[in-house]
Give the backbone structure.
Amino acid sequence: MIWNELKRPFLILAPMEGVTDIIFREIVATAGRPDLFYTEFTNVSSYASEKGRANALERLEIREAEKPIIAQIWGKNPEHFSVISSALESLGFSGIDLNMGCPDKNVNRAGGGAAMIRTPELAVECFRKAKESTNLPVSIKTRLGWSKVEEYKDWLSTLLAEHPAALTVHLRTKKEMSKVPAHYELIPEIIKLRNEISPETKLIINGDIKTKAEALALYEKYPEVDGFMIGRGVFANPYCFTDHIATREELMNLLYKHLDLFEKHPYGSFEPLKHFFKIYVNNFPGAAELRAKLMETHSVEEAREVLKDA
């Protein structure tokens, strides 16, 4: 099982909608790969329908070089969790992760993501259906609660009672989003819950961890945590899984590679690609002006011309 093969403390790139697609995962791997990748999350109901399956499979496309990689899925229909879970092993994944923490309004309105915190019985049913339909280890990513921090006691206890292979806890509630500091003070209590209820479950901490150094510092303080997940930190530094400090030239090379990959493997429209520009064009003289010009482009060719002129 992949979770037992990883050396502690292992580092993971957090699954982020519209960010951690197959192209950006290759960029991160070029800069310095984490110990484990996750896909963007895929709607189980989309996969279960003829109309939506093609789109779902596109989101689940992976490269051999990315392995080990975990497929993250979300939804609220237990039978659909069963359908997709039974297929993921044949697609080359090392595990399945159930998203029970996404705060997106549309996802929550559909009953998925963090909304599952409010329907614990349904959450358990979905987990059980996924687990019984696959030989892959099944894990969960969630938050402390919906609106109150103290919800974590009952909510995490409910999940741990199902003995997931791993449990990732974003140390904020859905209501808090990312507007407050992560509640690191609760790590000892969460470790205690894990040890009492499901000691075999790997515990992963997520929230405000931006670099490998920060993850190692937390591990030194909380050595019973198994792994750490970095999300937004990759926007500040795509080399965040290493100790390397990138030069401007290296960042520009990553941007050119991103443009090349997008051209070879167009992943939707060009507009969302602009969200990535700030990762590479930042913190150097003239960066703001260059980034502004790039934001006015409408194609890979135009972006290359702007970079050439710069």
